Amino acid sequence: MEYTLKEMMAITAAREIKNEDIVFCGTGISMLAAMAAKNINAPESVIFFETGAIDSKLEEIPLAVGDPRVMYHTSANGGLLDSFATMQNAITGQHVVGILGAAQVDKFGNLNSTVIGDYESPKIRFSGSGGGCDVASFVPRSIIFMQHEKRKFVKKLDYLTSPGYLDGPDGRKNAGLIPGGPELVITNMGVMRFDDTTKQMYLAAFYPGITPEQILDKMEFSVDTSRAEEATPPTAEELTLLREKCDHQRLILS
Amino acid sequence: MNLKQDKVMDLTTAINTYVKDRCHLSLGGFTINRNPMAAVYEIIRQRVKNIHLYAHSNGQGVDELIGGGCVSHLEIAYGGSGKFASTCIRFRKAVEENLLQVEDYTNYQMTLRFLAGAMGVPFLPCRSSMGTDIVNKWGFSQEMRKTSKKLPDDKLTIMDNPFSGWLDTEKVVLVPAIQPDVTIVHVQKADKRGNCRIQGLTFADAEQAKAAKHLIVTCEELYDNDELKTDSDQNQIPFIHVDAVVHVPHGAYPTACYHHYDYDPNYLKAYAKKAKDDTLHGEYLKEMIHGCQTQQDLIAKTGPEQMAAIAADPQTGYARNLDRK
Fold first, then answer.
1. pLDDT at B124 > cutoff 90
2. What ipTM does this complex have?
3. A6 to chain B nearest CA, in Å?
4. Mutation test of the interface with chain B: which of A55, A111, A116, A134, choosing the one with the most B Cβ atoms within 10 A?
């Protein structure tokens, strides 16, 4: 079955989500990935939003985490204090998987979603942290969505908005952060993971028709490609459920 | 504190009374939901200048207030309007053109800062942002902070856990309280004395409301004083915090108001297009904001057909099958 890169990315992320995970999601493809997991491989996963909605029914895809669609048929409609406490406290927080995106990522999975250029007088201003830095600070696992471009996979971030492993294996501990950090980076070309020992990014998978060299070409820093394998494309069943159950209005997929 | 039985006034009077040049203001709502848009438009019409604005993730309200030329300083976690503007457009332009001084926090930090203000404590701790530029890079210098009585001397600070190691915590980030001069929230139901009932997510509205020196409430439905005292477990803001109650049906439009109406995708898309171009944005301000005297004039421009399309379905609270492409 034919599929788009967006579908490949959403399904790749969905497969990482397990039953009993609490999935923190943002806008766009991260919302779609969480819905795909719920509808395909992890029906017992729980979707929740920083706005305070937990276990929303999501009959239609929300276009923002403040969309009224996240408020329908929830376990509780609270507020921001509730959602961040859920992640900061270890009792529930250790079950949370964050899904994040950014303008830049470095080899330790630190993210920039604030500015390009100087903070004082930036060339480009982005939305800022929102809850991104909070999630990345609190939860044990996160999935990052990125477009593979040289200006996005950079040696040095213009601004470190959300912590990955900071400067290496002891980075989070030294800074005083809760243990955690990103598990994988899903792009339009492949999947990067982080080495258990060095916490540095490596290429884990490339999509059919893409080579590791082409991926390296789209990065400012080099990564280990010796563990890379070809990714498994989405199955017909996954694609059908994604298209019909998650985004039948084609608001994100189109 | 205002204990009057009847705090109902019109929007022009409420804004004129409480929202002054250089005031410190916070707005309720989140991205494209329950922003107090009628109040934002009235602030723009009254040409209030140099507002110091506090926001977690307000989106549309913040962007229009910046675009209206009302804001000089902004403390914010997130400036985006969902799929309609992943970064708010006039916010982005104002920062890139150095027309706005910005200080970045996280959403949790901004929420805790409002809560600290509401509690009357100078700061609250959290375990977020250690090792990041949220801690390291400041938008407002210490010198600038020292010249303002309304700002603490530091953006934030990191402290060793005084209960050494308790809850496996070595360090915490302390964020300072916010007590805005004015907060404005839009709610579904309010009575004349100011008791408020919000349906759906409350975001940080209650904390923002209780932190402020003055609170303006705009509401979809206005009730007599005893009517919201039944089922009062559904009320979030009691009258003691409230200074002005303004009855503004569709007061959050073009953002959503749960169980009343959805966001208007057509308006938000058209806004995003105009906001990108200074000339078109100037025309937008002239026609849609200054060209209207009230929120009802703006609703009339949108027309009954689109207002019917965004009307909330009673079961789900949003407009099912609304064309959002």
1. yes
2. 0.97
3. 16
4. A134
Does B1-122+179-224+236-306 carry CATH code 3.40.1080.10? yes
Question: Is a pLDDT exceeding 90 seen at residue A87?
Answer: yes
Domain boundaries, chain B: 1-122+179-224+236-306, 123-176
Per the CB < 8 Å rule, is A163 touching B126?
Answer: no
The pLDDT tens digits for B205-261 are 999 999 999 999 999 999 999 999 999 999 999 999 999 999 999 999 999 999 999
Interface of A with B in 158-217 (CB under 8 A): 159-163, 166, 171-172, 174-178
Task: Give a three-class secondary structure readout of chain B.
Answer: CCCCCCCECCHHHHHHHHCCCCCEEEECCECCECCCHHHHHHHHHCCCCCEEEECCCCCHHHHHHHHCCCEEEEEECCCCCHHHCCCCHHHHHHHHCCCCEEEECCHHHHHHHHHHHHHCCCEEEECCCCCCHHHHCCCCCHHHHHCCCCCCCCCCEEEECCCCCHHHCCEEEEEECCCCCEEEEEEEEEECCCCEECCCCCECHHHHHHHCCEEEEEEEEEECCCHHHCCHHHCCECHHHCCEEEECCCCCCCCEECCCECCCHHHHHHHHHHHCCHHHHHHHHHHHHCCCCCHHHHHHHHCHHHHHHCECCCCCCCCCCCCCC
Of all residues in chain A, the one with the smallest CA distance to B75 is A128
- What is the CATH number that goes with domain A5-246? 3.40.1080.10
Choosing among 3.30.30.40, 3.40.50.880, 3.20.20.70, 3.40.190.150, the CATH entry for B123-176 is 3.30.30.40
B130, A251: Cβ pair inside 8 Å? no
**A50 included as an active-site residue:** yes
Mutate to test the interface with A, among B57, B210, B264 (most CBs of A within 10 A): B57
User: pLDDT tier at B58 (50, 70, 90 boundaries)?
Assistant: confident
